[in-house]
Specification:
Blueprint lengths: L3 E8 L6 H12 L7 E4 L5 E4 L6 E7 L4 E7 L3 H10 L5 E5 L4 E2 L6 E3 L10 H6 L3 E6 L5 E4 L5 E4 L1 H9 L7 H4 E5 L2 H9 L16 E4 L11 E9 L4 E4 L11 E15 L2 E12 L2
Parallel strand pairs: 13-16, 14-17
Antiparallel strand pairs: 1-5, 1-6, 2-3, 3-4, 4-5, 6-7, 8-9, 9-10, 10-11, 11-12, 14-15, 16-17
């Protein structure tokens, strides 16, 4: 019997009608005529299968937890990614019970729990004692977890070289670098666009600063601060009503908005930066 993976579709709003959500998922899957088959089983269960394959998955509402449960084979990475697209606008988040983390919003970042990766790179990850968790579709951009639970961004250029030149080695610091303390923080940061995907940028920077304004930034810049607090349980950031006059030292990341206002100061107009400040829990 094939190993199974369970995902839970959790509502972000108590007013969400799970019956309607399940029907919309059903309708979306039926658009793949000839590629996906969907049947309704007992207790309003959706049975999902694929012609000419043995893959099957099931979805049903758990009335006790008020969640939709998706169960699929451990080698079925297709169903969860189709469902991820289907629920994009349904105020549902998909929770992976194996990794104990929500899937990130980016549809191009694939969850590797139910996926196979290139056999040539499996021993490379083992060599560096990393477990690949996420991969950008059709690329060698991987995020992997170490034994301490930290999430690393893998150097895709070096990974490609090591794949094509078996037996060669490189330092751990050249192969990957930590981008999040744990998978929950990784999800929260990634969903806010605060995780780098370029291994070399920003190199050596302890705290992430994303400047989308194009203007030079310093602590003395004129700025309007919007504060977000990390919610560890829900692996997300929530905006707070906290008013800040300056950026605190304990921030996780800051993002400078591309929109710029102007204010009158010292008898002249100067640009005012809109800055989102992301704080620890």
């Amino acid at each position: 019997m094939a190993k199974l993976v369970t995902y839970r579709l959790i509502s972000t709003n108590s007013s969400v009608n799970l019956q309607k959500c399940l029907q919309k998922i059903n309708d979306y899957l039926l658009t793949f005529t000839g590629e996906v088959e969907v049947k309704k089983g007992k207790n309003q269960t959706l049975l999902i299968s694929y012609p000419e394959t043995k893959m099957m998955a099931a979805m049903k509402i758990n009335t006790r937890t008020k969640q939709i449960v998706l169960t699929c084979a451990a080698n079925d990475n297709l169903t969860v990614n189709l469902v991820k697209i289907a629920v994009k606008n349904l105020r549902l988040r998909i929770y992976n019970t194996k990794t104990r983390a929500f899937l990130v919003n980016d549809p191009n970042l694939l969850d590797l729990t139910a996926a196979r990766i290139d056999e040539k790179i499996v021993p490379i990850f083992k060599q560096y004692r990393l477990t690949p968790l996420f991969q950008y579709n059709n690329s060698l951009v991987f995020f992997a977890q170490d034994k301490r639970g930290q999430i690393h961004l893998v150097n895709r250029h070096l990974l490609e070289h090591l794949r094509d030149h078996p037996g060669q080695k490189a330092k751990k610091t050249e192969f990957s670098r930590v981008v999040a303390e744990n998978i929950g923080r990784f999800v929260a940061l990634m969903d806010r666009g605060l995780i780098p995907i370029n291994f070399y940028q920003p190199a050596g920077q302890k705290k992430l600063v994303i400047n989308q304004s194009g203007l030079p930034f310093s602590p003395k810049s004129a700025m309007r601060l919007i504060c977000f607090q990390l919610d560890e349980t829900n692996q997300s950031f929530n905006q707070t009503g906290q008013e800040l006059s300056k950026i605190p030292k304990n921030y996780l990341a800051i993002k400078i908005n591309p929109d710029v206002n102007y204010i009158y100061r010292n008898k002249r107009l100067i640009p005012e930066l809109k800055i989102s400040v992301y704080l620890d829990s």
